[in-house]
Each structure stands twice: as structure tokens, then as C-alpha cells.
Amino acid sequence: MNNFGEKVKSLRELKQMNQQELAIKVRVGPGTIEKYEAGLKVPDIQMILKLSTVLDVPATELLPITEQPGGSNELEILHLTQKVGVTKSELILSKIVDLSDEEFSQLLEWIQELEKNKTVH
């Protein structure tokens, strides 16, 4: 089973929920769940996190484990987002999106310095 929709349906049924019950828990219409399960719609990352929470599985379990062309790090990003939290991740990204390359390099140097000081103390 490698299809996102099939996985959602299987996990939903395992939890003995119908589409409407799952939709209520993740705050979407039942038609949206139906479209996910039929493979007609792909959820965004935030919805994947909500579904994984309600279905009580890691978000990575809902996604196909295939390497994307170009070496995509989407699964790693998803895992880190879960670890840090969606709100903090959005805040961090919203703050760094407009940084110049030089400012971004300075930020990375500052983070590395923090990490060094953390290991010293």
C-alpha cells in the first residue's frame, strides 16, 4: 500500500471512524476526506500533520517512502516540522524568507556559535 488515500482510508477504518467523523476531527468537510481517499486531492503539510495526529501515526507513515528526483528532503522537513511544531516552523520561515544571502550566512554562523556555547556549558 503506497497510495496516500489508501493509507488514510485503512487507518481511518482501523480507528473505526467513518469519513464524516474523521472530517470533523480535522475540521474539513466529509467530501474532502472522500477526495483524499480517492486520490483526487492532495493535502498540504499542515493537513497531513492533523491527519497523522488524529489517526495516531507518524506523518511519514502517511507518505510514500520514495526518493524524489533531485534528492528532495521533504520527509526530513516534515519530520523536523513535527519535532519543532508547525507554529514555530512557520514563524521561523516567515522571519528568514526575506533575508539576503549574507544575512542568512550570518544567521547560520550565529546558530553555530550558539551550538558551540551550548556544548561548552
TrEMBL record:
The residues covered by the HTH cro/C1-type domain are: 8-62
This protein's record includes keyword tRNA processing? no
Note the InterPro entries from the entry: Cro/C1-type_HTH, Lambda_DNA-bd_dom_sf
**UniProt keyword annotation of tRNA processing present:** no
Q: Name one Pfam family in it.
A: HTH_3
Listed A to Z, the keywords are:
DNA-binding
What GO molecular-function term can you cite, just one? DNA binding
The name under which this protein is listed is Helix-turn-helix domain-containing protein
